[in-house]
Each structure stands twice: as C-alpha cells, then as structure tokens.
Amino acid sequence: MSLLLPIPAVQALQPLTILVAAPGISGVIAKLEARLQGRRGPRILQPYYDLAKLFAKESLAPAGVNAWFLAAPIVAMACYLTVPLLIPVLTTFGLPWGYMGDILGGGFVLSLGSFVVAVAALQTGGPYAQLGASRSKTFAAITEPVVLFVVFSVALVTGTDLPYALAATVRSSASQIVRPAHLLAAGALFLVILYETGRIPVETHTGTNEFGMIEEARSFEHSGPYLALLKWGSACKQLVLYTLLINVFLAPWGLASSAAIGSVALAIVTLVGKALVVGAAVAVIDDSFAKLRLFKITDFVSAAFLLSVVAVFTLYLGGG
Amino acid sequence: MQPVPGVFEGSANVVAVLVLLAEFGMLRQAVLRDQVRLYALQSLVVSALAAIVAAGRDVPELYALAGLSLALKVVIVPLVVTRLLRDTSEEIAGSGTLGVATSVLVSIVVAGFGFFAVGALGIHSRVLPTTALSLSIAVVLVAFVLMIVRRDVVSQAIGFFSLENGVSLASLVVAAGLPLILEVAFLFDLLVAVVVFGVLMRVHHGRTSSLSTSALTRLRG
User: Fold this and answer.
1) How confident is the model at residue A96 (pLDDT cuts 50, 70, 90)?
2) How far apart are CA A223 and CA A228, in angstroms?
3) Which of A303, B22, B44, B160 has the largest CB neighbor count within 10 A?
4) Nearest residue, CB atoms, A179 vs list B10, B21, B132
5) B105 to chain A: which residues are within 8 Å by CB?
6) How far B192 CA sits from the closest chain A CA (Å)?
7) How many structural domains comprise chain A?
8) TM segments (chain B) (predicted)?
9) Is the pTM of this model over 0.95?
C-alpha cells in the first residue's frame, strides 16, 4: 500500500509540473534543433539561466505606459497556469477544479493571456511591439475556426467537450484511436499548436528578423523580471498545448489513476518524456521546412481548417 | 454520441481520408513534379486499400486489381508524365484562377456537398463502410475543382487521372465483387487517357511553347 497524496496537492502539482518543466522542454528543443543543423547549441538548462539572469536585472518601462503594462506579464502567467487545472496533466480522473471549464474554456483562458500581452504591447508606442500585437491578433482570428471545429469533433465523439472525457474515450478501445475524426482533429490541433507556439513554418522561434515576427515581437519593450515572466509564460503555454495534444488526443497513457505518490511521480516523468517526443518532432519540422511568407500563412491555416472540417464531416456521416 | 466503427472500418476510412487529403495536396501544390508525386502517392494508397479489402474481406480477385493498379498508376503513369515534363523544362504550374486558401475553401464546400449528397442515399456495402463511398465522391468533385481552377495542361491531366482514383475508390465500396475484367477495363481506359493527354501536352507545348492553357483563348483565323 503506497502513500496517498492529498488531492489538493495533486491539483497543485499539475501547474507546478508545467511551470518547472516548461523552460527545460524549450531548452531540449533548442539543443536538438542546433544538433540537427550541425551546431553544438546552447546548454539544455540555458532557458533557466536566462530566466535567472533576467530576474536579477532592473526593469524599465517606456514613458507613458500605465499599470496595465506591468500587470500584463503577471496576468498572462496566471492564465497559462490556470489551464493545467482544467486538462489532464497528471491524472486520469478529474480533480476537483478539473470540471471548472471545458476545452473551449481553456482556449478562452489562453486567448485572454495572449490578449493582455497584446494590449500591453500596444501601449508602448514601440513600432515592433505594436506590429507583433496587431499581427498576432489578426492571425489568431484566422486560426480560431480551426480550434472551433476541433472542439466540435471532440463534442461529437464524446457527447461533451471535457478534456478528461475525450482522454477516457481514446483510452477505451483501439477503434477509437483509428477513427478518422480523431486522427484528423489531432492533426489539425498539431498545426494550430505550431502556429500558437510560433514555430516554423509560421514564425522563426529564435532570431530577430522583424519581417516574420508575430508573437515574439510583442515583448520587445518589456525588460527585467517582466520580460522573464513573459518568456517563462510562453514556454508554459507551449508545454500546456503539448500536454493538451498528448494527454487528450494522441497518447493519454501513463497518467496516474490514483493519488499514490509513486504513480503521480511516474506520471510526471511520462509527461515530460512524451512532451520531449513532441518537441523532437517540432524540432525536425523547424529544421526541414522554410518559413512561410507572412501572407502565405492563410494557406497553412487553410490546411489545418481542411483537416478539422473533414473530421466533422466524417463524424456526421457516421464513419468517423 | 454515435456508434463507433470497428477497427477495420475505422482504418479503411482513414485510408480513404488519405486519398482525399492527397487530392487536396494536388490542389495546393504549385510544383508540377510534386503534383505528379502526390498522384503516385494517392494511387499507392488506393492500391493499398484494395489489398486491405482483399485481405480483410476475403475477395482474392482484388489482389490482382491492386497489383495491376500499382504497376500502372504508381509506376507507369507518373513515369510517362515526368518524362513529358522533362522535355518542357517548366516546373511551376501556371497560376490558378484562385488563390490557394480560396480554392481550398471552395473545394471544402464542394466536397461537403458530395459527402452529404451521397450520405443521404443510404447505400450500404458488404466490404467497406459507406463513409468511404462519400469520400470517393468528394475526391471526384475536388478533382473537378482542380481541373477547373488550374490553367496548365499537366495539372488538368493529373486532375483527370486522380478523378479515376476517386472512381476506383468508389468501385471498391459498391462493387468489390464486380468481375475483374470490368475493373481491368477501367484501368485500360486510364491508359488511353494517358496517351491522349500525353499527345495533348506534346502538341500544346510544341505550338505555344508553354503548358498554360491561357494561350488557347486566342482566336485563330
């Protein structure tokens, strides 16, 4: 009989895992990308050092901004850490706050986080930050239909749109995994995640080429601990989205089915391992495709839209 | 909540969905050579589905069909078309009348019409789920869109060939037990089409030294 963790502790462990592991995942992806390009690359722990350095620096704000500018990184971080309460990060069973919101609710919270950052960037008067804010909102509006259709297909498959319910459905039988609707919706979600985390073919993740900048340009005017929070927040958002893809759609196995310490610890390790596999796939894509011109992003999104619409179509025909 | 199809039906549907996605890939692809490769891939998927049906539903004639279509549509037709392309030194397809995103949206609407029109017929088949039939009709309709929006001879030929892929997918659903000779006759129809399109491409390129059909709108006196 192993020791049981109190449920609130498991609940708190979900955002904590994301918070602690997120920069590491980014570090591994950066390292792997560099190795694939034949470079040695930064240390895997480099994102943690960056964060430590930024937290130790002073922070400056542009003239004329109000408290919103300083509050935005904190609010965004809070948003990114709320979503792990709603999705199955570590456990197969719903935790007390797990049914607070569905997939759509999680999507709203993520968009809220990105919205407050965009508004803060708009306040600065810096052209690059404003450009990034404007672009990120424009393209977010284009990807929104894809997310909606993915949610529709989840709703048609499970009869609800709770992430826990879909994960349980996928686990239930092999016929649930091979059904086209599931695979297509997962594919569409993966493309959306490439967009949302600012990866090739949508955006170069590293580098300062302002022509292609969308999400990365928004934080240009922040500095010190606030910049650190923004960077940490976008790493967290990336891991949250990977978790959503892995633990709800692709591979909801290895989650803890009880609050026993051993199985929860195993779930943490499995989550990090699975996120690294997704990260490796993303790194390979980053290295093997060219960045799309800004006005070609609609073509990319139309592919994701196609996948999600076909998913819903096949479901309506009863064959999904 | 809907009844979940079994593993065999689900996998067959996934393969049929792949055929449709390859069709959309051809619609999006601007490089002619890659369009031909996508056609070969689509034909490979259709042949694989024929083999899957042959194994899963015990229709041994389909093995012969799968082998024939593999040889013809995956190897010979793409080889002939790429050979024709090699002489023309044109790599990029003439601009479509619509942008990529627009033509994908138009095709989604057209494919949706095909899906639900055929779904409403309620045709049931012994070997494959009805969804595969709807998907095959969607493939045919998207191939039409491909032929309509593209302005070069090669894309139109590829559109026609892939239309045949949609038809053979449909024939797998509704007529898997059809005598083999009929299916083979279909394949040889395709061979005739290849010859005709090959001559067309040659003659067109010889006269206008381009693959674009926009030169055809000029009046000749």
Assistant:
1) confident
2) 8
3) B22
4) B10
5) 302, 305
6) 33
7) 1
8) 6-26, 38-56, 62-85, 97-121, 127-149, 184-203
9) no
